[in-house]
């Protein structure tokens, strides 16, 4: 896996792990963190305070139950203040929830010789770019895009299907709604559905 490569010298770099829910993003971030610890690197892990699923607020957790301790944050200033001078690896989960300034902050850390690992959904439930993820992908040295399995047809899934009362959420639903298997499914482009308000009206007329 490219994320296990350590460039020669003392320069830092940015890695982004992206993809849909259930594709293994957090699992991959946890794997890289654990390998960095084995390599005797000084590591700090952060996560968005919006995500309290599975292992709770103070852990990054994968859907299969793997966890690593993390500091919940709700601002970039918290990360900037919390990172210690001796820290070599900074890992941040659910980066899509962070403000756009995370791009500048991650770049600053990399310039200071730190390895920055960010994981997050690159698209929202509409299938559109999510938060700062497009910019992070653009500035990163290493990018891994993971896929899940479409629950409808079994093809590689690249979309987050949001469900409300078992039905596809409309396009004008809120962008951020934290949830698990009860609220989201992984689907491919063909099986992904996001009805717009005018489409609902057409169906009612018909």
Task: Based on the model shown, name its key terms.
disordered C terminus, three-stranded antiparallel β-sheet, 23% helix, 206 residues, six-stranded parallel β-sheet, single chain, Rossmann fold, alpha/beta
The total of helices stands at 5
Query: What is the percentage of strand-forming residues?
Result: 25-35%
What is the CATH domain class? Alpha Beta
Largest sheet: 6 strands, parallel
Protein structure class: alpha/beta
CATH H-level name... which superfamily?
P-loop containing nucleotide triphosphate hydrolases
- The CATH architecture: 3-Layer(aba) Sandwich
**How many domains, in number, for the residues?**
1
Pick out the low-confidence regions: 201-206
Gyration radius, rounded: 18 Å
| Count of strand segments | 13
Q: Provide the CATH topology.
A: Rossmann fold
Protein model, in words:
The protein has helices spanning 25-38, 76-82, 102-111, 133-139, 197-205; strands at residues 13-19, 43-48, 59-61, 67-69, 71-73, 89-93, 115-120, 142-146, 148-149, 156-157, 159-164, 167-168, 184-187. The protein has a single domain, classed as 3-Layer(aba) Sandwich (Rossmann fold). The chain is 23% helix and 26% strand. The protein is built from 5 helices and 13 strands. The strands form 4 sheets. Strands 5-2-6-7-1-8 form a 6-stranded parallel β-sheet, with helices on both faces. It has 206 residues and is α/β, with parallel strands linked by helices.
